[in-house]
Amino acid sequence: MIIDFSWYVVVLIILAGFLAGFINVLAGSGSLITVPLLIFLGLPATVANATNRIMILVTNIVGVTSFRQQKIFKIKDNIWLSLPAIAGAIIGAFVAVDISEQLLTRIIGGLMVFLLFTIIYKPQKWLKEVQKNIEHKYTVWQYVIMFFIGLYGGFIQIGIGVFLLSGLVLSVGFDLVKANAVKLFIILSYTIFALAIFIYKGQVNFIAGFLLAIGSSIGSFIASRIAVGWGVKFVRIVLMVVVIVAAIKFLGIYDFVFNLLNK
After folding, report:
1. For residue 160, what are the contacts with CB-CB under 8 A and spacing of at least 6?
2. End-to-end Cα, the chain, rounded Å
3. Contacting residues for 233 by C-beta, under 8 A, at least 6 apart
4. Contact 117, 56 (CB under 8 A)
5. 209 and 50 in contact (C-beta within 8 Å)?
6. Is residue 38, in this structure, part of any structural domain at all?
7. Exposed site from 43, 73, 95, 231, fewest CB < 10 Å?
């Protein structure tokens, strides 16, 4: 769990946190940057996954606060959606899935491709403008979706933002800007519990986590302002780019090309 925190390593970690925080607020999957970096710097994969939760916690605190100040959503109107996600995340943080890591990443990659086609061919679902003061009545099916998304988030944070956005836009019916705000609140809610479990297990490198948090707090604040000011069309473009990159990574296309070029 030891990292050589030279000045350039510190700068690199903070910069990675900034990029991840920015991406996480607008779309998700910013952990595709931070978790591999922590592993590259010497942390075991389990410790990198746990340490990354400090950044996630700070990112979502800043993002939720900013969206509330801009009156995009109210916590009391969306707290019920977070409860099944919290329950799923607690289970996910404690229990190991009996599936190989490689198979899991390929499944996620396939889901990313499916989501990409959904974003492209059903733009009306993603391009709705902000509709304020509209109450949503949640169904049992929507609570079930949030539970399983939380379950996945308890295991691995990578990609959770994209899945949550899809559930909130396609199932609940939020526009992209409000979905981003609610997404951050739900992730914040269950991350508190998941991080506590990882700290209890002694799997968190606090120095690396707080350095990531410094960068992510700045990136998330900027992104939350851009999301509201630039609207759903811009957020949709960012989301599409993130989903494409995530699909390439999870399907192993990046590793295949990299190995091919280095033969």
Report:
1. 28, 149, 152, 153, 187
2. 32
3. 127
4. no
5. no
6. yes
7. 95
For residue 88, the enclosing domain spans: 7-261
Residues 6+ apart with CB under 8 A from 19: 30, 33, 215, 219
Tell whether 160 is covered by a domain: yes
Residue pointed to by tokens 């592993």 = 39
pLDDT tens, position by position, 23-42: 877 776 677 778 878 888 88
Q: How many whole angstroms separate alpha carbon 255 and alpha carbon 251?
A: 9
Task: Tell me the C-alpha distance between 91 and 111, whole Å.
Answer: 22
For 147, half-sphere exposure in the C-beta direction (CA atoms, 13 angstrom radius) is: 9
Report if pTM > 0.90.
no
Structural domain count of the chain: 1
> What are 99-156's pLDDT values in tens digits?
555 665 666 667 667 666 666 655 555 445 545 444 556 788 888 888 888 887 777 6
Judge contact between 3 and 9, C-beta under 8 A.
yes
Query: 1 in a domain, yes or no?
Result: no
- Residue 2 belongs to some domain of the structure: no
- C-beta atoms surrounding 59 within 10 Å: 33
- Pick left, alpha or beta for residue 134 (phi over 0 → left; psi -120 to 50 → alpha; otherwise beta): beta
With DSSP H G I counted as helix, E B as strand and the rest as coil, what are the percentages for the chain, rounded to 5? 80, 0, 20
Q: What are phi and psi of 86, to 5 degrees?
A: -60, -45
Nearest to 36 by CA among 58, 57, 13: 13
DSSP readout, 138-183? Answer: --HHHHHHHHHHHHHHHH--TTHHHHHHHIIIIII---HHHHHHHH
